[in-house]
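**Archive record**
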Amino acid sequence: MKKQCILQKAGGLALFGWLRGRSLGKAFAAFRRADDPTAKAIALGVGAGVAGLAVRLMFDHMLIGTLALQFWVLVALAMVVYTDASVRERAADASR
């Protein structure tokens, strides 16, 4: 029973780490791709927010309530900014 509990926690931690890394990667990729200064600022802010939240969660393991909501909003923003930058990049390539 104890081994199963450890495996479940390790799996959850690995999944959370993957998600955090993926959202950070998407935010910084959007920052590099964006031409608009506002999109660059949003992407950089989202990346910094996800990184800051990760540091905070190293010392306090309370990903519930408003912190959980903040995390998911930041992840959603990272995906939207990345998608928007990708769409703009493709549109610019098509117009050339």
Notes: The chain has one domain: 2-95.
